[in-house]
Amino acid sequence: MTLAQRRSFSEKLGLLHELELFSGLSDADIAAIGHATTMTHCHPGQVILSPDDPPDRIHILKKGKVRVFRVTPDGKQLTLDIYEKGTILGDMRLLGQDRSPAAYAETIDAAVICTITPDELRRLVERHPIIGVNIITFLSRRLQEAERELEAMAYQRVGQRLARKLIDLGQRFGVETVRGTLIQARLTQQELAEMIGTTRETLAHTLGDFRRRDLLDTEHHHVVIRDAERLAEVAQDGDEG
Amino acid sequence: MIETTDRFPVNRASSIPTVTAASMAEVDGLAVNEFGIDILQMMEQAGSHLAELVRAELGGDLRGRRVVVAVGPGNNGGGGLAAARHLANRGASVRVILARPVNRLSDAGRHQLATLLQMSVDCCVAIYDVPDDELDREFASADAVIDAILGYRAAGAPHDGVLWLVDRVARASVPVISLDLPSGIDADTGEAPGAAVTATATLTLALPKPGLFRGAGRERAGRVYLGDIGLPAALYGRLGLDPGVPFAEGPILRLAAEG
């Protein structure tokens, strides 16, 4: 190995070290992976994946951005997504995920990608099961992010609706007590759930959350608003869209 | 009814209650979760009415007319995509410009886009797919522009591809028809925290948003129309709203400002 080769190899190891996929591995393991992978410096606009490629490479985006696009029957490009560093690209069937059909990937800026064949990756996983665990973490995080976003949206709306409804009821039926504003209306969870258009289960969950945050208290089918100001903030929190 | 100036019935704006963004989110939630009226059903009506309004703005015949549809990532954009399909079906030449990549669209938006691609309607993503000057020429040569970039849920100033597209639509010198409200205008206050579109006409959905009659929104909304998306009185009743029967004379209503 020449001096220049050694320098580029040590840069490669530095980049590999930073990749989440190879976290938890020793320096010696990273060096072994360094020999099994190819690190490519790409210029902007370089196509790194095309539908014609045989499914024999997995790319890990180390630096820069990549645009994934399809080409319409009349030859026009349509951007599907923009990926940033840490993303695994390539034939995701090898990692148990479907690949976008007929998709191309090209670099947007000066990007660095780390390439490995499925066989090499399989051998690496056999030798270093932690890499397999890291791959699973990467893939499930993609899925969880999407699910969490949906859940948060749905939940936020119920919380907001409940806060608004309670403020409204407080204004109409509230009496001040030492513990806060007591809503003098006997309400079952079912009735309250119907008022804000949700299920009793979701309402119970949301009430529990409000109780934990000391926004309110409940007793014998009555609600006491403990902190009107913070409840109003919950009611005000806008949806993003 | 106070007068009829075109083929859409006209009502006083004050005769129909306005609905804040937060209440509209509740209306949408109730529609989907309690009344089984899903987003695609509402979007279909929004898109069809929007295409009708464009037809009226262009003098009654869409054949051969060029319409640019500016589409944001949310369901407002989905309504624009549905309108693009109806416009193409009714003879217009349509160019769709998306503010963000396909995978960032809402599920319903992607569903609409897939149909447009099957129809070979020209679709592209701003910034990434087509040089800016080509899209600038597209805006310049269009007969009308649809603004379906941001809806009532949008908060704060537009950024990234959304800003790029809002800027282009804001500079357009042809009729601009906004869906629900001009993009960049706050649905509640009518203020513009950043770049915003000035519309020739706005088709607001279900119930009008207060921002169409306040602040910058009043100037930027142009003529305001209200479009029926099929929501029942019982749903509004759950939220203590009573809009009456606004669509007795047709599914699109012109809302006339007072005075």
Question: Could you provide a short overview of the structure?
Answer:
The complex is a heterodimer of chains A (241) and B (259). With 241 residues, chain A is of the alpha+beta class. Chain A is built from 7 helices and 12 strands.
Query: What does the radius of gyration of chain B come to?
Result: 17 Å
The neighbouring-strand order within the major sheet of chain B is 1-9-8-7-6-5-2-3-4
- Largest interface: which pair? A-B, 26 and 30 residues
Helix content of chain B: 25-40%
Strand order of the largest sheet of chain A: 1-8-3-6
Number of helices of chain B: 8
Mind describing the biggest β-sheet of chain A?
A: 4 strands, antiparallel
Q: How many extended strands of chain B?
A: 9
Shape of chain A: elongated
The residue-averaged pLDDT of chain A reads 77
Percentage of residues in strands of chain B: 15-25%
Please give the alpha-carbon distance between the first and last residues of chain A: 55 Å
- Pairing-aware structural class of the strands and helices of chain A? alpha+beta
Described by the principal axes of the CA atoms, the overall outline of chain B is globular
What structural category do the secondary elements of chain B indicate?
alpha/beta
